[in-house]
TrEMBL record:
<dbReference type="GO" id="GO:0006526">
    <property type="term" value="P:L-arginine biosynthetic process"/>
</dbReference>
<keyword id="KW-0068">Autocatalytic cleavage</keyword>
<comment type="similarity">
    <text>Belongs to the ArgJ family.</text>
</comment>
<dbReference type="GO" id="GO:0004042">
    <property type="term" value="F:L-glutamate N-acetyltransferase activity"/>
</dbReference>
<comment type="function">
    <text>Catalyzes two activities which are involved in the cyclic version of arginine biosynthesis: the synthesis of N-acetylglutamate from glutamate and acetyl-CoA as the acetyl donor, and of ornithine by transacetylation between N(2)-acetylornithine and glutamate.</text>
</comment>
<dbReference type="InterPro" id="IPR002813">
    <property type="entry name" value="Arg_biosynth_ArgJ"/>
</dbReference>
<feature type="site" description="Cleavage; by autolysis">
    <location>
        <begin position="185"/>
        <end position="186"/>
    </location>
</feature>
<feature type="binding site">
    <location>
        <position position="175"/>
    </location>
    <ligand>
        <name>substrate</name>
    </ligand>
</feature>
<keyword id="KW-0963">Cytoplasm</keyword>
<feature type="active site" description="Nucleophile">
    <location>
        <position position="186"/>
    </location>
</feature>
<dbReference type="InterPro" id="IPR042195">
    <property type="entry name" value="ArgJ_beta_C"/>
</dbReference>
<comment type="subunit">
    <text>Heterotetramer of two alpha and two beta chains.</text>
</comment>
<dbReference type="GO" id="GO:0005737">
    <property type="term" value="C:cytoplasm"/>
</dbReference>
<keyword id="KW-0028">Amino-acid biosynthesis</keyword>
<comment type="pathway">
    <text>Amino-acid biosynthesis; L-arginine biosynthesis; N(2)-acetyl-L-ornithine from L-glutamate: step 1/4.</text>
</comment>
<keyword id="KW-0511">Multifunctional enzyme</keyword>
<dbReference type="GO" id="GO:0004358">
    <property type="term" value="F:L-glutamate N-acetyltransferase activity, acting on acetyl-L-ornithine as donor"/>
</dbReference>
Amino acid sequence: MFEIISLKNGLENVDGFFFDGVNSGFKKEGNDLGFIRSDEPFNISAVFTTNKFAAAPIKHFKKYPPNFKSNFILLNSKNANAMTGEQGVADIDELFSSLATKIKLVNPIMSSTGVIGYRLNKEKIIAGFDKFNFACRNSNAVATAIMTTDSFKKELAFKVELEDGKSFNIAAICKGAGMINPALATMLCYILTDAKIPKDDADELLKEAVEQSFNTVSVDGDTSTNDTVMLLSSQKAAYEKTAFKTALDMITKQFALMLVRDGEGSSKVVCFEVSGAKTQAQAKKAAKALSNSPLVKTAIFGEDPNWGRIASTIGASGVECFEESLVIKYDDVLVYDKFNPELDKEREEKAHKIMQKDSFKISCDLGMGSAKFSAYGCDLSYEYVKINADYRS
């Protein structure tokens, strides 16, 4: 048995790490440059974007040998350092050469978020190094340094007490608001723990956590060039696999819902639950199709209870389904089955009231099997879908 206790002050609860954020001139106000570091090299597990045009920081990370350790992560906002070619990677090496004159570095890592297609302003970043307090443990400072279009700071922390009286802490910061697709999100997420977790367990549990959280959400259907989720361990406290998995899943699921809630142009969070599918893969495919559909998003924005766009999207997804076995509900209100193909006035009014809420569930039973999957999405106005040609990451 174990107990998970929510904590304040984010990363500051985890032993073995230091972190800070400063303004280096990329933002008019607020922090835009930060770091996470430790005196001793830490284990790293990471999951990155599936976008073929991965940004320079990801290419730089992948130059290191498998299972390498690091002691420093440099973070910046306002510039993604993506689509900058070999020079984008070389710029990172140049920055770390400068930083190495101030502090000892072991396989340093960089993460960036912001505008795509522009090289980093190395002079501003190097000048920012002089503002760092490398002995600082200010979670708020580094959490705000990675924010771009976020409307609120995303920060979580838990203490996990084990039955033998031992414990460990796990905490995280995350940024992300738009360009979110069921393949990570426009996001940077750093999860720190003092648990003595084996590297194999960390790799396994992080991938599982990402699959059931960040990979289930959608805002506007784009996949970023910079998506990064990292799990860092200082190895200074106790560890128990089931307890750690539970806490990690809690963090990633809560962050995933925050990302949808903070989606650019969105005002509602919707759970798309697909059940009765023939296979798990088909349930997942249909649920993600619903969460990612611009037609469905605009219908939700307009609070239109007509089920046609839901059915159409499921049919277009390619999963096995028949109109005779399909059942659609908005929360507990039946809007379609073969006996009720048309919405009467009473059910239409009830469905409309549900769609006026800031969160609700659309359930779709395919009637083909027992597999089930839930994805999460939001509403978007037609104007947002039409004109959004964003180049942020």
